[in-house]
Amino acid sequence: MTDLFANLGANLGLGLSVAASPQTVLWCLVGCLLGTLIGVLPGIGPVATIAMLLPVTFYLDPVSAIIMLAGIYYGAQYGGSTTAILMRLPGESSSVVTCLDGNAMARRGRAGAALAVAALSSFLAGTVATLLIALFSPSLTALAQSFGPAEYFSLMLLGMTGAVVLAHGSVPKAVAMVLLGLLLGLVGTDVESGMQRFTFGIPELADGIDFVPLAMGLFGLAEIIVNLERGVAKVDDVAAIGRLRPTREEMRAAVPAALRGTAVGSLLGLLPGGGAVLSAFAAYTLEKRLSPTPERFGTGAVEGVAAPEAANNAGAQTSFVPLLTLGIPETPVMALMVGAMMIHGIQPGPQVMTAQPALFWGLIASMWIGNLMLLVINLPLVGLWVRLLRVPYHLLFPAILLFCAIGVYSVHNSAFDVLLTALFGLVGYGLAKLKCEPAPLMLAFVLGPLMEENLRRALQLAHGDAGVFVRQPISLGLLLVTLALLLGAVLPAVRRVRAVAFAETDT
Amino acid sequence: MHTPSPLRRHLRGLAAALLAASLGVAGGAATAADFPARPIRLVAPAAPGGSPDILARTVGQFLNERVKQPVVVENKPGGAGNIAHELVARAAPDGYTLLVATDQLAINDSLFHDLSYGGSRGFAGVVQAISAPQVLVVNSTVPARSVAEFLDLARARPGEIAVATPAVGTVGHLATALLQRRTGVRLNHIVYKSAQPAIAEALSGRVQAVFVTLAPALPHIQSGALRALAVSTAERSPAVPEVPTTAEAGLKDFTFSSWQGFSAPAATPAPVLDALNAHFNAVLADPRTRTALTAQGFDVAGGTRQAFDGLVAASAAQWGDVIRAADIKPVD
Amino acid sequence: MSVHTESAPETGRRATGPAVDLWAAGLFVATGTAWLGLAGGYAIGNAGRMGPGFFPALVAGLLLAVGAAIGGTALARGSERFEPFRLRPLAAVLGSVLVFGLAVDRLGLLLTAVLLVVIAGQSLPGGGLRQTLLLAAGLAAACWLLFIVLLGVPLEALPR
């Protein structure tokens, strides 16, 4: 135990000595600020922000560059949460969850509180995750490696089931939305055979539908159309701002939720094959399950902001472990980070931690500094962002549309993606009219390809024996949790139906 | 199918030159003396951070210093490179829009049925920038210290030795198909999205071997977690001098490397191509470029544009044979 | 039985018009059928080496089944009714983004941005053209400065 803490002290000391020099702190600050300012533009998520700002870092030495990039990443992520809360525009998969209750809080005049809770939860999660990495990183890598295709498939199945629980409307419709998301995720080139599926001969679809046009269409455009339909007079009411700071009750609910979110996110972030995308969804599902009043979720529950924001940030932090030690990027953002490192002559791999300890621990320490910067920059800015809601809607929505269009374009420099956004705007409007929630669809869309890939690969490795899913202990455990969750979701519904039936026979 | 005839190509070039002259704008485009007079666009068939993007940014930075014009890297990922290929093939043939050409350009000639840009013949080579060996590696627990031992193992347990490779149509994927074809062994060939997850699976031991570009596997070879059995190039790689070549390991007609370079639309005038070739060769000879590229596992190439054209044509022929022999179905 | 539920409070403000769940079911069944049809053209393979058609066919089949179940429930127990539609915001918002996507590579950012704002502005009745044009010009200039000058997004400012 003493060994553990001696290590911790030495590692963090080295990290801070690199990351806390005035020069690197400055780059980190600049990165956070730029990332926040660009990331807060509606329609421009972290991937687009980092891709746009990447060239800025080419002129720095490797350590400063990577630290500045980490700052940009954190800033962009927080900026993305800001637009998710204020305007219901998720720039990446994790913000989809923040939209649900964050935007609901904003509509109830609690935008300031939602933004502050998001910033504080992120900081808390960042701090805990940094300590976790410093304490356990060598053993964490081993844990990451124990996840094979069978385990991933079971994890994805658990994630999908969680997505059904996530919805606050009808369960069968949520299941249908998950399936619809899976189908959309399958568009593109099949990894195994190279065959193009469901692409209708359109070359731009060969790599599948991108997350950003789908999210901007289903959430952003659909939201704007519905708002306009209700009439501008009503829409302008939203400008009720209320008290900026969270109330004592809100804090009391948020802190435990943020801690649980941190635990979920830290664990899932370690898995190199797409655990991080699950973290925010999983934390939200957990909160909703644990809450004595699950019906508040989706209508502005503060736990529904704190937990996913914490999980997302913790996951982002711990996912640097597989990234640095195995060189596997989990998310598009991480892929960009690998590229950035390689441009600066750093080849991610097992030797980074031992051969370049200054870089490794400097990066970890700089993440914590980045989180601190974020808090310093953003708490004062909350008032400014919230004031954006005061801009009359008839001036605001064309600006949002324009930024969305440019943001979508800039991800792949593709005008086709802008056309897709319009198409999904129509779909999103239709789904809103049909009372179908888009969040389960988004999760399934992100996980679908991973799920299929791992299912096929697990069976290929096991020569077609499906028993592999229950023979591996981790996989079996995950399947049992899935089953429990499924029964938990279905049984109340069954009971309700029976209650209704009985009520009807009574009358 | 849409391949323009040489005559049509010349006519198109002539028309472009006439148009340029009549407008009096890019009049200098055809003469090498004041080339380049505007920013140069390097179109990479990859997202930022992908290997062609890294090459473009590294070379672009030094090219910018040399030609005193901005060099802009534009990312057009997707469609197995075809989206970027199409864009450059249709760009004005004035030397200001260049493609980061990879093996994929040559492979796609046979992998796709009907390429609207005419395939690799739609381009004129500027220079080969780098080459990179492919390497066959096994997990260190696999009892095979050479290619021969590996093949014996695979023959003893047909269909059970799992080999991971990156996406369909990449050099590693085709090489594994070719290996089975040539040696008659049956492997459990598992395809991943890219090199990194394939390597990770080999590290965990769930698959026994992986066939990939040397660079991403190198740190794990050095750490001892993976064992390299052979490199695919004609000569040994300076990065792993103790690893034999495929020819030394007893595999006949199994020599190839992956390469990247820069190409222009086919109708680009020869003087412009020559000027570009000279600039790129000077940049590639710069020790700073060399250091930066070597650090990323690339072997710096350089050379004449005719040599690059020859390489592209030879690769297209070689992979065409493999694709047909391994019975990989072309995509529409 | 359906009479019962139609009078329930959660069935929406308007008790007339088509039922939401029936249309949703129709959408799911149609999508499931279409994708099942497409997946039928891809190889199914076997468990040890699944073809590209296996998983899509499975998912599409499930969607069809769930859609049918939702439809059956809606027929048996009724469902809430559609909220009223308004065509104008829908057409203006989608149209503005469509036009942006179609025009941006040809007309450049400045002109396309103006087009987007002007078309989007049509989603509300009234609203002076002068004010819309002013907003459009301001936003176009701001986007040009931000995205092209400062961030280097590879977009042309003016028509090619």
If you had to describe this structure to a student in words, what would you say it looks like?
The complex is a heterotrimer of chains A (507), B (332) and C (160). With 507 residues, chain A is mainly alpha-helical. Chain A has 22 helices and 2 strands. Chain A has a two-stranded antiparallel sheet with strand order 1-2. The longest helix of chain A has 35 residues. Chain A is globular and about 55 Å long. About 1% of the residues of chain A have low confidence. In chain B, 42% of the residues lie in helices and 19% in strands. In chain B, helix 2 packs across helix 9 and helix 4 packs across helix 11. Chain C is mainly α. Chain C is 67% helix and 2% strand. Chain C has a two-stranded antiparallel sheet. The longest helix of chain C is centred in the middle third of the chain and has 35 residues. Chains in contact: A-B, A-C.
In short:
Chain B is α/β, with parallel strands linked by helices and 332 residues long. In chain B, 42% of the residues lie in helices and 19% in strands. Chain C is built from five helices and two strands; from the N terminus they run H-H-E-E-H-H-H.
Give the helices and strands, then pairings.
The complex is a heterotrimer of chains A (507), B (332) and C (160).
Chain A: H1 2-19, H2 22-39, H3 46-53, H4 62-87, H5 93-107, H6 111-145, H7 149-166, H8 171-185, E1 188-189, E2 196-197, H9 211-230, H10 232-235, H11 248-269, H12 276-290, H13 303-318, H14 320-326, H15 332-343, H16 351-355, H17 357-387, H18 393-412, H19 415-433, H20 438-461, H21 468-471, H22 473-506
Antiparallel strand pairs in A: 1-2
Chain B: H1 6-23, E1 40-44, H2 51-67, E2 71-75, H3 82-89, E3 97-102, H4 103-111, E4 123-139, H5 147-156, E5 162-165, H6 171-183, E6 188-191, H7 195-204, E7 209-213, H8 214-223, E8 226-231, E9 257-265, H9 270-285, H10 287-295, E10 299-300, H11 305-325
Chain C: H1 2-6, H2 20-40, E1 45-46, E2 49-50, H3 54-77, H4 87-121, H5 129-150
Antiparallel strand pairs in C: 1-2
Helix pairs in contact in C: 2-3, 4-5
